[in-house]
Amino acid sequence: MSRRGWLLFLAMGVIWGLPYLLIRVAVRQIDPALLVFVRTAGGALLLAPFAVRRGALGPLLRHWKPVVAYTVVELGVPWLLLFQAERRLSSSLAGLLIAAVPIVGAVLAQLTGTDRLDRRRVAGLAVGIAGVAVLVGFDVGASSAWAAASLVVVACGYALGPWILSRHLSQLPAMSVVLASLVLCACAYGPAVAFVLPTRALSTSVVLSMAGLTVVCTALAFVLFFALIAEVGALRATVITYVNPAVAVALGVGVLGERFTVGTAVGFVLILGGCFLATRPLRPRSAAVTAAMSSPSVAEP
Fold first, then answer.
1. Looking at the domain assignment, is residue 227 inside a domain?
2. Domain membership of residue 250 as a residue range
3. pLDDT for 29-39, tens place per residue?
């Protein structure tokens, strides 16, 4: 891989491991619905010039149904649930639980006929699920059980989004789909903003976290991710899936002082090991599978 490829890879590993920390800080004073609106509206404004320059916004109107479906399962529902969950769960734990997305994707591929499972992949699923069970059993208290359960829905949404993209929207530029999804999500949450505005001044850390989520982890992240795909290919770009959780844990423990328990360590190893086994290719990927793997939703929190 070229030097530019390595730089893009390292940048994406950090950028998509960072949101969990920023979310954890922001939701201390910001309602999750308002945070979704700020991130999507701000991201749309920043990405609009890139998408318009590439064109192909017009054809989106002919595919509005899958675009809406993609928006709901990839942004609208997962981001709200993730932001709400991080009010009760540590950022490192949230990052590790979301790391199970490739496992859900492997099951979805089997159910939809996109790909199939062999014994190695089934073993990977079992190992990954065991990792999730370890995390929930050791690091999630009774009061946080619903928050952890909601992240299962988030993981399912993150896995279903690429499937919709590959089956119904693969002929459209991904940047255009991303922009349309951000705009639709912002419009959906816009009416609720007036009811969830903060009643007191925000701290500097919260303001910076909101700005970081919008500028760095949304707009800049998508631009760099597409550049990474162009540089190293869609399949190799997805390796950041295994880097993001490590970054999320390191930032949570090092910056926020979150606990790093034995359960965290064991769950981390099992989940990433399970993801690796469950997603290893059995054969050359079809165009649909390649398109799914090139989706911007891969590992994107």
1. yes
2. 3-293
3. 999 999 999 99
